[in-house]
Amino acid sequence: MPQRNGRTRDLVVFLAVLGTGTVLVLRGVAAESLATIAVAVSGLYAAWRGPQPPA
Question: pTM score, two decimals?
Answer without folding.
Answer: 0.61
